[in-house]
Write a structure and sequence with these properties.
Blueprint: H1 2-16, E1 42-46, H2 52-67, H3 83-98, H4 104-123, E2 130-131, E3 158-160, E4 166-169, E5 172-174, E6 180-183, E7 192-193, H5 201-205, E8 219-220, H6 227-233, H7 236-243, H8 248-256, H9 266-274, H10 289-307, E9 362-364
Parallel strand pairs: 1-2, 1-9
Antiparallel strand pairs: 3-6, 4-5, 7-8
Helix pairs in contact: 2-4, 4-10, 6-9, 7-8, 7-10, 9-10
Length: 369
């Protein structure tokens, strides 16, 4: 009954939030005037609920993007060796503005949409866009459909490599996960990451990235699945608390905790649950699980908006990560940092607040009541 009422609330919010573009190649350039209703909206679903053939179609499409040539300047970005790595480079370059800032949720909401559109337009993907419901995998990470390593998964854990605890800050240490080496099987087992690890201290201090940040630095794709982090920080109780945050400030804390401090939120913990390159926020897009993690974060954000309709458009944060260097508060009229060549237009935050307005027309199969 609670779930039914929540879907009803979602439908009501869809009806209130005005016009938007249906899922169509036309709307990416000129979406004004298109309408979006609950029955027109595409539905995003959990990866685990998709039949095996649809899961494989999704990973095949990601591999297709990976096979496309880079469009970035190789002299400026040597690590951009294919179109997938272009996404990773664009994310790295904008990390200092779109994390721990007022842009975090809306910038990533549109970045996900651009990637979904690329999967469809470039690679012919016709399935649904999935999320990783990390609260459902806290007790079975390595055997879950996401990480069991079969051809229908998002590839396996990394090979066992190391046992030392991992210090995330002066007052937060987590145990080593069960991997730490190259992923061993699945659709992305032969991938190379070409961006090297970037210390999160660059994010929280506001320092410029090192000159070598975009150098070609090839290695295998590394994972270190961490059940301790998953069970401690990403279980359903934490997700539910986040979706019912009292305001935008509390939502930010419940999502991210205190980076470099003594706590993790469900977003930061999702990264550290996977480990490897996901431990480096800047370059984390190199692991394809990144998209499904962030689609789940968008689902949690959407649930918060439905649970708090009077605060659905509220924002918290400035224009720089951790307000370093100090910058203005983000408002609905603030122009988002761009998305590189994927979309270089000037978009105000207000256009990206609703999943059924502006360039969006989608909903989720389940919201968090």
């Amino acid at each position: 009954m609670v779930q039914h009422l929540l879907f009803a609330a979602a439908a009501a919010l869809l009806a209130q939030q005005g016009t938007a573009a249906p899922t169509s190649s036309k709307r990416s350039d000129n979406w004004q005037g298109w309408s979006c209703s609950a029955d027109q909206a595409s539905t995003r679903v959990s990866f685990a609920s998709m039949p095996p053939e649809e899961r494989k179609a999704y990973t095949d499409a990601i591999n297709c993007i990976h096979s496309q040539p880079s469009i970035l300047d190789n002299a400026q970005f040597p690590a951009a060796v294919n179109k997938y790595q272009d996404y990773a480079v664009v994310h790295t370059e904008r990390t200092g503005k779109v994390h721990l800032s007022g842009f975090f949720l809306t910038w990533h909401r549109y970045f996900l949409s651009l990637f979904e559109k690329d999967l469809r337009d470039t690679c012919g993907y016709q399935g649904r866009f999935p999320y990783w419901d990390f609260s459902a995998t806290v007790d079975n990470l390595e055997t879950s459909v996401e990480f069991n390593g079969d051809e229908y998964s998002m590839s396996s854990n990394g090979a066992p490599n190391g046992t030392d605890p991992i210090a995330l800050g002066p007052s937060l240490v987590i145990p080593h996960g069960s991997g730490g080496g190259c992923i061993q099987s699945g659709p992305f087992a032969d991938w190379q990451a070409t961006l090297g690890y970037i210390d999160p201290l660059f994010l929280i201090s506001g320092q410029a990235l090192p000159a070598t940040a975009y150098d070609y630095n090839a290695s295998c794709l590394i994972r270190d699945l961490n059940s301790y982090v998953a069970q401690t920080y990403t279980d359903y109780a934490h997700v539910e608390t986040t979706a019912h945050s009292a305001n935008a400030s509390e939502l930010e804390y419940n999502l991210n905790g205190v980076i470099g401090g003594s706590s993790l939120g469900v977003h930061s913990a999702g990264h550290f649950t996977v480990g490897g390159f996901m431990n480096s926020i800047h370059v984390s897009v190199q692991d394809p699980i990144w998209w499904m993690l962030h689609t789940n974060i968008d689902r949690i954000y959407s649930s918060y908006q439905i649970n708090n309709p009077d605060k659905a458009s509220d924002l918290y944060g400035t224009e720089t990560a951790n307000n370093a260097p100090p910058s203005a508060n983000v408002t609905l009229d603030t122009i988002e940092p761009d998305w590189g060549y994927f979309d270089s237009s000037s978009r105000p935050v207000r256009d990206l607040i609703s999943t059924t307005a502006g360039p969006f027309c989608y909903k989720y199969d389940q919201y968090i009541s």
